[in-house]
Design a protein that fits this description.
This protein is an alpha+beta fold. The chain has 4 domains: about 50 residues, Orthogonal Bundle (Arc Repressor Mutant, subunit A); about 50 residues; about 160 residues, Nucleotidyltransferase, domain 5, CATH 3.30.420; about 90 residues, no CATH class. The chain is about 35% helix and about 15% strand. The protein has a 5-stranded mixed beta sheet, sandwiched between helices. The longest helix has 18 residues. The radius of gyration is 35 Å and the shape is elongated.
Length: about 400
């Protein structure tokens, strides 16, 4: 008759044979099919703890020096809940900024997020080393421009001309317009050139607003003409090759995730205000992963002060005569004394804005001076209202001549 014995019982029998039966460790170990070392361990544990010493013990280590401390794990979870769109790399960067020591690695943070149910585990993507990436060596060597769409609450579409510097990812333009036609696109482009200077080259897709090279009746559009007359080499992507303008496409994805898809807009002006605020944050405060977690402005600043010797077609979109989509918005150049000239009157913009451009906005009887979307100064109107009609009619004539 066969009897099935438990593991503890068999160990106990082996121990008793050595202790009470007079058997040697070698003989008993061979009979039970175990090593002498195992039998010696059973004897020692039996003498120390009795039958309890013969029970299998957990192989889990009593401590793990590599385990993330509970305090750090809690900080990761709290920060992720406050900022659901931040990934492991951004979380590690922000934790270091807040003085956490030690900061968990990106892989540790990812495992913490998975354990906490804050992210869904997924298959690993291709290694970064598998991708062929290119980048210009210095700022202002190349800009990438494209158009992205947003929606107002009523469902109508708004077009946004965006542009980034290839080396620094610095956003040089983000201008909302009802339609991406020649006039508003070129006005926004001109403002970017005056604000930051003339890049050596420009990369866009083959959209009709950017080029007429692929049209049936090949012709030069205003955008191409501006590039040619200002010495900007205009590069085009291959047909159906969006990855060529990968940096501006990635900017669009970030813009959608962090702004356009997270809130609603009631008007074009509201879209532009949100864009202005977002661009300031993106350029100056938001660390960029592709730049080693530095902000775009830190890299773009290496270009130094940029002059804007604009010529040719841009003289038709005259400095100080650009009208934005709002009827009462105008661009003016600040002189060396910090003043602007508008409708026959002078207004002080600020000595810190000398040689830069500002927006003049008319609101009822007030003249507001804005710089990069922020109101800097407000004055009571010093010019007669009849002057405004002269300015508007001049704008219309210039616009018709340029578009024609």
């Amino acid at each position: 008759m066969l009897v099935e014995l438990g593991v503890v019982d068999q160990r106990y029998d082996a121990v008793k044979e050595v202790l009470d039966g007079g058997g040697t460790v070698t003989e008993v170990a061979e009979r039970y099919g175990v090593t002498r070392q195992s039998l010696h361990n059973w004897l020692r544990r039996y003498r120390e703890r009795g039958m309890a010493g013969l029970v299998d013990r957990s192989k889990r280590p009593r401590s793990c020096p590599h385990r993330t401390p509970a305090r750090a794990e809690l900080k990761v979870i709290e920060l992720r809940r406050d900022h659901p769109r931040w990934g492991p790399r951004r979380l590690a960067y922000e934790l270091a900024r807040k003085g956490l020591d030690p900061v968990p690695s990106r892989s540790s943070i990812y495992r913490i997020l998975v354990r906490s149910g804050l992210v869904e585990p997924r298959a690993r993507r291709r290694k970064r080393s598998d991708y062929i990436r290119w980048e210009r060596a210095r700022p202002m060597e190349l800009w990438q421009l494209d158009v992205v769409e947003a929606r107002l609450e009523g469902g109508s579409a708004v077009k946004i001309l965006t542009g980034v510097d290839d080396h620094s990812r610095f956003c040089v333009v983000a201008s909302a317009m009802p339609r991406a036609t020649a006039r508003p696109v070129c006005e926004a482009f001109a403002q970017a050139l005056r604000a930051y200077g003339v890049p050596q080259a420009l990369l866009t897709d083959n959209g009709r607003v950017f080029t007429g090279r692929h049209a049936k009746a090949r012709h030069e559009v205003l955008f191409d003409r501006i590039c040619r007359e200002n010495g900007i080499r205009h590069l085009l992507t291959a047909v159906r090759s969006p990855t060529t303008t990968g940096k501006i496409e990635r900017f669009h994805r970030t813009l959608r995730d962090e702004l356009l898809s997270t809130r609603s807009f009631s008007s074009l002006a509201e879209v532009q205000r949100a864009l202005d605020h977002y661009v300031v944050t993106y350029n100056t405060l938001r660390p960029h992963q592709a730049l080693g977690m530095v902000t775009p402005i830190e890299r773009f600043a290496l270009a130094g002060p940029q002059a804007a010797p604009l010529t040719g077609a841009l003289e038709e979109v005259q400095e100080g005569e650009i009208v934005t989509d709002a009827k009462h918005d105008h661009i003016r150049r600040v002189d060396g004394n910090g003043r602007i000239h508008f409708a026959g009157a002078r207004y002080y913009a600020g000595s810190g804005l000398a040689r830069d451009s500002v927006t003049v906005r008319l609101v009822d009887d007030e003249v507001c001076i804005l710089y990069r979307g922020e109101v800097m100064r407000t004055y009571q109107r010093r010019h007669p209202k009849e002057k405004e009609e002269v300015i508007y009619s001049h704008h219309r004539r210039q616009s018709n001549r340029t578009i024609a």
